[in-house]
Amino acid sequence: MSSNKILLILHQARSDPGRVGEALRTLGYELDMRIPAIGHTLPDDVSEHKATVVFGGPMSANDDHEDYILQETRYVDRVLNAEKPYFGICLGAQIMARSLGAAVDRHPDGYMEIGYHPVHPTQEGHPLFPSPMKAFQWHKEGFDLPKACELLATSPEFANQAFQYGTNAFGIQFHPEVTEAMNRRWLDKASHMLVEPGAQSAEEQLADRAEHDDTLRVWLDNFLNQWIGPAS
Fold this sequence. Notes:
By secondary structure, the protein is an alpha/beta fold. It contains five helices and eleven strands. The longest helix is centred in the last third of the chain and has 26 residues. The chain starts with a strand and ends in a 5-residue tail after the last helix.
């Protein structure tokens, strides 16, 4: 067992932890990447890892017919019950919210957030969100705020953008991990989604990336330093 090992749960064979993986390696952590959707198992003992990060994916936290979603949800239950550090990104935040008893669903008007959308800190969120920012998003579902959780950031169409449970479990709706190469790959592979309400064009996304990406990168570095800090 390594106290400097972090479990990364991804959702497709070619998934990439992007900047989160890079930043955690820079902090000195060993990354244990697993993809239950293609048959990888999850640990029996949550104490094998210092922390867990669950990333996004095109599936839903409501996909109870998928064994790997049930497997991930049960694992997240155990991590939260053990009060181990947890970081959920998009689907990972939705699984966390559902694990804590909240609903995950589509926007009532079919709206999606695809591209750069504003994220505003709440009063409780100011330590982690010092100012409003435009964050990269790619999702069609959102989540209700679970009981006993603090809302840290919000947006006009999906009010729950970031939340905290206990002292060291966090969920965010947006995607700070996405590099430009990943952004361009998503634009290519999921170009059919760019006609959806709330979706920016490829040109708008890349222009906003040039303007706002550095702010998002700095936010991620600051968050990871406050959440987990350098490896011991």
